[in-house]
Amino acid sequence: MSSSQHVNHELSAMRCPVALEDVDLFGDGAQEHWYEAYEILHREAPVLRIHGGGVTPGTDAFVLTKHADVSQVIRDPERFPSLTTERLGRFVEQGLSAEDTYEAHRNLMTASMVSLRPTQELYNRHRRELTDPWVGPGALRHRAMITRHANDLLDEWIDDTDAASATGADDTDLAAPGVVEFIGRFARPLPQRVMADILGFPQEDIPRLAAWGDAVVAPFVHGTGLKHELTAEQTSDMLARLDGFQEYVYDHVTAKRADPQDDMVSFLCDVHYDALDRRLTDLEIAGIVHAMVIGGLETTQYALEEQAQLLCEHPGLFERLRTDRSKLRNFVEEAMRMRSPTHGLSTRITAHDETFQGVRVPSGSLLHLRFGAANVDPDEFDCPFDLDVDRAGVSRHVTFSAGPRVCPGATLSRIEQQIAWGVLLDRLDTIGYGDDNDWLHQPGIMLGTLKLNLRFRRSDTPLSFGTGRATD
């Protein structure tokens, strides 16, 4: 593998795969070997069968790793329906209301979907009428707010000079290097602050929102196997950690119905949802907020920290982007392709018998779509492990899925990433790796480094491309 990605073979609980029989995408420590595994799968088993891994007894699951196959599936929800759509259809057929579904499953997002988007047509209208104005195309309205939060976070550590390196330097020497734990002090809090503002929640509530957010994504971090399954004990713990979330949202809904503000929850309280010819219930609003918490935090955090690593690993790239912002968008897209925040999801099934790469896949099979592997498919991307900000068609990666069910918050995440690096490039001269990085990733299906210490040098002549504070 030609990628300069850090490897942790000696630290991982799993041996690095060298042959197909060694490949395990879901075991303990697999995150440290994903990219080595992808090369083997692309070459020897681009459609990997997992016997007995299907949704129902006696059915199998299939891991798709080729870009063409993953793209085909995600662009055709009728031929490859989502598990969520199938499950919601059953609830509707049983005559369950949103309230009935919540009582049975204790999941706000699932309950709200019963009425808001159980079909593809309703899903499309849900996006267009309820979320697009805030986290889809309408996310452009948040540029100034995102810029403010990025600058505020940078203000909190830009003067933290490295005592060891600055020994003997004048206190006013702006060239003295600084150190920062980048994830905890920038990559994680930025999307948290942005999402709190979008929803209309107080910034001081972020610790509570973050704790609830961690509970919401527990299956994707601590769940095992390709279906991200939690034990009964883990499920009980997750529900216990979510205690108070519904009441918190309901309290804000009540307040905003009485005194609406310019935020997403106020909008949801007042909007007339044409698909149902009525306004939304409190439970439906809480379900949408639940979805925002899942999708609005993790992806952007992981993307930013992996982008920081790529900048450290490619000498001269930070300076090139600093002086030529025309390549910044391409850098963000190329980085998400190379280091996909979400590496795979088991979200689709086959409605009919299918064939992928010459492998017959029976109707009713579970498909695990391996986005991380598709994004480094050599049949789709030349030199897939090389970062190329001049790459043609740079956004054809599948990091956010694609087609009718593309991630609703993809636009918001892209804007956050571009603005974040715009601010950092304006106000810093360089970044590089600090000390005490072990490069280990969290468990689960997300590519998330646990910590990232960076050494940086603040600029004594900040640039101004409309994002930083050089002209404040």
Description:
There is one protein chain. With 472 residues, the chain is α+β, with helices and mostly antiparallel strands. Helix content is 44%, strand content 9%. The strands form 4 sheets. A 4-stranded mixed β-sheet has the order 1-2-9-6, covered by helices on one side. The chain has a 3-stranded antiparallel β-sheet with strand order 3-11-10. A two-stranded antiparallel ribbon has the order 4-5. Strand 7 and strand 8 (359-361) form a beta hairpin. The chain is globular, with a radius of gyration of 23 Å. The termini are far apart. The model is unreliable at 166-174 (pLDDT under 50).
What is the fold's blueprint, element by element?
Layout: H1 34-44, E1 47-50, E2 61-64, H2 67-74, H3 83-93, H4 98-105, H5 108-116, H6 120-135, H7 143-155, E3 177-181, H8 182-187, H9 189-199, H10 206-216, H11 218-222, H12 232-241, H13 245-258, H14 264-270, E4 272-273, E5 278-279, H15 282-295, H16 298-313, H17 317-323, H18 328-338, E6 345-349, E7 354-356, E8 359-361, E9 366-369, H19 371-374, H20 410-427, E10 428-433, E11 453-458
Q: How do you describe this structure in short?
A:
The chain is of the alpha+beta class and 472 residues long. It contains 20 helices and 11 strands.
Strand order of the largest sheet: 1-2-9-6
Strand tally is 11
Overall 3D geometry? Answer: globular
Which sheet architecture does the biggest sheet show?
4 strands, mixed
Distance between the termini: 45 Å
Q: How confident overall, as mean pLDDT?
A: 90
Share in β-strands: 5-15%
What helical percentage do the residues reach?
40-55%
Helix/strand-derived category reads alpha+beta
Q: Number of DSSP helices?
A: 20
* Alpha-carbon Rg, integer: 23 Å
Task: Show unreliable segments.
Answer: 166-174
